[in-house]
């Protein structure tokens, strides 16, 4: 994204929010207005109203730091806190715990939610439930965590309770012998019944999110997502996804680059999404997890029914099925 724009004679007389929504993809006019109000865009070094009529020679400046701070504040306001009593334990042995993480719950503390105050992250609740986990793993911030989900993604995760289990599970993840399957509702009609997405993933240089790189790029990290269509609707598709790598926001950024972003995703969303598709949450859920028991070697498989939000959105979509 450009850091500034100089208004030409042709654009003189245009409202500031209209100019930004026409110039920046995928910024909508309402998003532009909110960004202007937050001071992310200024005119000639000062705050301007969204309805300000631009003049020839005006300079619009973009403040990326303010945008990051606003996005982080919005994320924090939507965070759900949990305690040990709130944990949805699917299975527990002496070696590991399998949990159904709720949407809106952070996996572990970060710079907004440190360990030294009641942050209410998933791992804080797990430590309250099983204090011995605090010494497990390679990173004291995320002890025992083997599989990580974004805050707004729900579903199955596994946490090791001993260092031996941690090392055994870590090896399985590295060898890609762990099965991770997700359910998602995405925008648009996915034409292929099966598709392999192999866009390399890197942190965006202009926004607080990840970016999929063009084919043939040597930068970023290799990532692989397999997509299988379950059902198509008017303006949306229900898909199952398997990931053969574990990159930050992998499914969300891959679907966005595939031109079928996940419905309800406020970070990776199309500019002209179907406005009549309403979703109460990010429509992405980890529904299946399989690995070998680190103590017995037995293949363990866990599955969840779709979150009720899927049924609600799908019911409305079926009425408009093509």
From TrEMBL:
Matching InterPro entries: PsdUridine_synth_cat_dom_sf (IPR020103), PsdUridine_synth_RsuA/RluA (IPR006145), RluA_PseudoU_synthase (IPR050188), S4_RNA-bd (IPR002942), S4_RNA-bd_sf (IPR036986)
Keyword RNA-binding: yes
Keywords carried by this UniProt record: Isomerase, RNA-binding
CDD domains linked: PseudoU_synth_RluA_like, S4
Gene3D superfamilies: Pseudouridine synthase (3.30.2350.10), RNA-binding S4 domain (3.10.290.10)
Keyword Acetylation among record annotations: no
GO-annotated molecular function: RNA binding; rRNA pseudouridine synthase activity
SUPFAM superfamilies, per the entry: Alpha-L RNA-binding motif, Pseudouridine synthase
Domain RNA-binding S4: 14-74
PROSITE patterns: S4
Domain of life: Bacteria
GO biological-process terms attached to the record: enzyme-directed rRNA pseudouridine synthesis
Family to which the UniProt record says this protein belongs: Belongs to the pseudouridine synthase RluA family.
Name this protein carries in UniProt: RluA family pseudouridine synthase
Organism: candidate division WWE3 bacterium
Lineage, uppermost ranks: Bacteria, Katanobacteria
